[in-house]
């Protein structure tokens, strides 16, 4: 994997494209985690826009439970593979997906979460295909706080992979990591906003922004001091310059 070059380039983002219905979305791998699927419209959009759909262990129970009321609907959401330590998938869910010929693979390493095991699975597939895919994980960032932090940590672990972007989608937000440097985030008001946040989770960051309701100019942000939460998008393009990686989050708002 190439290391990100440190030239002073602007990185362009359009995170809400993953939820668009216009078919222009760059293809990505969807990883389904073990949290309730409550926002079926956005789940459905992510499912349809994905090239691969991998499920982390108990994520399979969540798809099954969300759609089991109707066999026809349930059969519309057949993933490519279920992977993990398999301590969470219920027997009837396993039987159902086995009956649909889904590959179910047990991996028991004790240093990686089932989410990370699905990322490793994608890397295997990419070696076969000679192509790199973005990753969208959902439902992410709710539930257990240690799992939430593990998912944020995964953003940090993947940040030097220049060809790949990782997006975490929770019930109400899309969350990404902006590496140090200059960024332009292209926003689509019919899909996202207005609230957003920029959080210096790994280390303090000095931020300059344009396009937010509360813009910052060379402002040092850090835990214990200023963290830009409950901010709002005030333009279709947000410009952000940061001297350290920061987490960007924006509210999903499907119209
Ligand atoms: N309570 C939770 N809160 C938030 N995320 C979760 C929670 N439980 C699971 N996840 C996410 O879903 C993935 C699959 O979960 P799984 O069904 O394997 O539960 P687990 O055995 O508790 O997770 P792991 O083995 O990965 O620690 C996890 O790797 C994690 O990313
Ligand atoms: C320092 C350290 N802390 C916690 C774990 C535990 N752990 C982290 S990921 C994982 C897999 C869960 O399916 C487990 C058990 C570890 N290995 N090393």
Automatic annotation (TrEMBL):
It comes from the Eukaryota. Residues 181-246 form the Thiamin pyrophosphokinase thiamin-binding domain. InterPro entries: Thi_PPkinase, Thiamin_pyrophosphokinase_euk, Thiamin_PyroPKinase_B1-bd, TPK_B1-bd_sf, TPK_catalytic, TPK_catalytic_sf. Keywords: ATP-binding, Kinase, Nucleotide-binding, Transferase. The keyword Hydrolase does not apply. SUPFAM superfamilies: Thiamin pyrophosphokinase, catalytic domain, Thiamin pyrophosphokinase, substrate-binding domain. The keyword rRNA processing does not apply. It catalyses: thiamine + ATP = thiamine diphosphate + AMP + H(+). Pathway: Cofactor biosynthesis; thiamine diphosphate biosynthesis; thiamine diphosphate from thiamine: step 1/1. Its EC number is 2.7.6.2. Belongs to the thiamine pyrophosphokinase family. PANTHER family: THIAMIN PYROPHOSPHOKINASE, THIAMIN PYROPHOSPHOKINASE 1. This is Thiamine pyrophosphokinase. It comes from Helicostylum pulchrum.
């Amino acid at each position: 994997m190439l290391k990100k070059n440190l030239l002073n380039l602007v990185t362009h983002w359009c995170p809400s494209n993953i939820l668009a219905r216009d078919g222009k979305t760059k293809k990505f791998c969807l990883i389904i985690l073990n949290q309730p699927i409550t926002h079926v419209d956005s789940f459905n959009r992510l499912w349809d826009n994905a090239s691969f759909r991998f499920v982390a262990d108990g994520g399979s129970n969540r798809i099954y439970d969300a759609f089991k009321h109707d066999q026809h609907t349930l059969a519309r959401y057949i993933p490519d593979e279920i992977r993990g330590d398999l301590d969470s998938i219920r027997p009837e869910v396993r039987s159902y997906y086995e009956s649909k010929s889904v590959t179910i693979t047990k991996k028991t390493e004790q240093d990686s979460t089932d989410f990370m095991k699905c990322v490793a699975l994608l890397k295997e597939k990419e070696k076969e295909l000679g192509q790199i895919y973005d990753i969208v994980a959902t439902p992410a960032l709710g539930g257990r706080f240690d799992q939430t932090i593990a998912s944020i940590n995964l953003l940090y672990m993947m940040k030097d992979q220049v060809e790949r972007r990782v997006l975490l989608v929770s019930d109400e937000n899309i969350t990404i990591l902006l590496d140090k440097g200059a960024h332009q985030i292209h926003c689509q008001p019919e899909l996202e906003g207005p609230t957003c946040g920029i959080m210096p989770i790994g280390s303090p960051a000095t931020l300059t922004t344009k396009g937010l309701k509360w813009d910052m100019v060379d402002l040092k942000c850090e835990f214990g001091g200023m963290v830009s939460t409950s901010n709002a998008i005030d333009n279709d393009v947000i410009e952000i310059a940061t001297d350290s990686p920061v987490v960007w989050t924006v509210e999903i708002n499907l119209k």
